[in-house]
Amino acid sequence: MSSKLEKWGYETHRAIFDTGTIEHFRREADRVAQAAGSACVRHLRSRSEVFDELALSGSFLRLLPTGVSPVRSILFDKTPAENWPVPWHQDLTIAVVEERSVSGYGPWSFKDGSPHVQPPLSLLENMATIRLHLDETPAGNGALRVSPGSHRRGKLPSDLLRESFIEESQTCECQAGDVLMMSPLIIHSSRRSTAPNRRRVLHFEYARREDLDPELHWFE
Q1: What is the pLDDT of residues 183-220, one digit of tens each?
Q2: Which of 25, 74, 96, 117 would you label with 106, given CA atoms 20 to 30 Å apart?
């Protein structure tokens, strides 16, 4: 993990993929979204060989700590018709195949019919998220906002994750082909787009293999 990612909880890598590759990913993202009938498509790797290969590609793995595996993958596809705000939050859950009673894991929830669980803080602290932008994402088109350094505060109660409690925030504007890396523990949000356009983002979360409990069967 780079010193900037460790200190601030996020960093941007510009132009990781060229225009032709991004156009290929856009076509695949549109196919997956259309097949799923949703603007938020979970378990992306199981729905697309293209994105399964991408999650394990050298382009991504060279940005990540060694010894990690993808544990969650999502396509977000905001459009003028599907333009939703996301309040301040942390990413605290991982998708698994089935619910099991395992010490240190919980509470449980279901998203799109799949069980999700909050793993121990020690696992979350060593995770990393890659968000590949397929479209220009300025502040007016739902760019992610983050609270720098907030990932070092651990799991926070929901009453601290309100606009009035966020002392400092940074808007992470990105171009098509840019990668935003972040800790899932960083406090982040996105506003409703004021100049809505397509805003397709591929979201991949990675955890250290040594941290994954063998009693749980990970979805991805």
Answers
A1: 999 999 999 888 888 999 999 999 999 998 888 877 65
A2: 74
One-letter amino acid of 147: S
- Token pair recorded at residue 43: 């378990």
pLDDT in tens, 69-103: 999 999 999 888 888 889 999 999 988 888 899 99
Q: How far apart are CA 99 and CA 47, in angstroms?
A: 22
CA distance 202 to 207: 17
Residues 6+ apart with CB under 8 A from 186: 9, 10, 90, 146, 147, 148, 150, 151
Alpha-helical (H) ranges within the chain are 3-8, 19-36, 44-47, 49-55, 58-61, 121-125
Mean pLDDT of the chain: 92
Residue whose entry in the numeric block shows the structure tokens 């993808």 = 70
**Starting at the edge strand that comes first in sequence, how are the strands of the sheet with 128-133 ordered?**
10-13, 179-182, 128-133, 199-208, 68-78, 40-42
Angle (nearest 5°) at CA 85 between 178 and 220: 55
Beta bridge partners of 201: 76, 133
- Half-sphere CA count of 147, side-chain side, radius 13 A: 24
Angle at 29 between CA 46 and CA 33, to 5 degrees: 75
Report the predicted TM-score, pTM, of the whole model to 2 decimal places. Answer: 0.94
Residue 37 has a pLDDT of 94
* Separation CA 210–CA 121 (nearest Å): 14
